[in-house]
Amino acid sequence: MKILGIESSCDECAAAVVEDGRWIRSNVVATQIPLHARYKGVVPEIASRTHTEWIYAVVQEALGKAGVAPSDLDGVGVTARPGLLGSLLVGLSFAKAFAWAQGLPFIAVDHLLAHLYAAQLSESADDLSAPPGYPFLGLLVSGGHSLICRVDAFDVIKVLGSTLDDAVGEAFDKVAAYYDLGYPGGVAIDTLARTGDPSAFAFPLPKLKGEHPYDLSYSGLKSAVINQLGQFQKNPALPVRNEDIAASFQKTAVDMLLRSLFRAAADTGLRTIVAGGGVAANSYLRKRLEERRDLQAIFPPPSLCGDNGAMIAGLSYPYLIRGDRSPLTTQATCRHLP
Description:
The protein is globular. It is an alpha/beta fold. It contains ten helices and ten strands.
């Protein structure tokens, strides 16, 4: 079964063709990073207007690279939630029209679930490893979301912990923007941190008690890095280097995340962790999880950590196989639905 997947939840205009829910036949991502870099963040109006200009060509390129015609497809999947409403509407409207015109089954999916599915995809039909068995712990970390969840099926998750304020990726972006480290912030900080001293600043970890054993909070860390940097410098006699700020911030941000994740693993007894989202590409996060020999950490390749059409097409497969269909009246929504 060949499925066209369309993703436009934020600033990536993406389309892909995936066969049988696993094999990526094509994966085209048209990034808007150059358009938003001057603002150090995504401008929703620019994002949605650019999607309208690009989406036809992106879908056409995805079909061409896969070597398929619209008549060869067996279904169309698209992101309907969560995300920027204007951006979502562009992809959703295009997918509806495409599916209707071709007489194809149509399914609208949650792109958070798609991020957790991305690790099952491969660019080679000969390199398809066995998918992780359910249940497992899901770690979804991006600019808009920080979730630790129990995943019982491709469409069944139970959120164990989430951020009480800023998402981890948002904290990366805001620190990078404040110090003009580069855009996108997560990539810029990860790159700088490789030549920095992670012990140069001893930033504090928040203490969440009571009903929040797996929750996260990044507002305090963000404020400490931006507004109170000098208070946490280990050796004030040394010059302040952006590389050291990046390394120390990254270490604390990831350690905070892993503290909650490891607690959830211990309490649930689940030994498999599947990560997804843009921050899942972070080299320090991957290194720390690989060091835990008692846990199996599964990551998508870095190219599938950010928003992409392949994860949408992949996740659409089990829905369509089950016989699910979305009505053409389906609406986009900014928020994740349980």
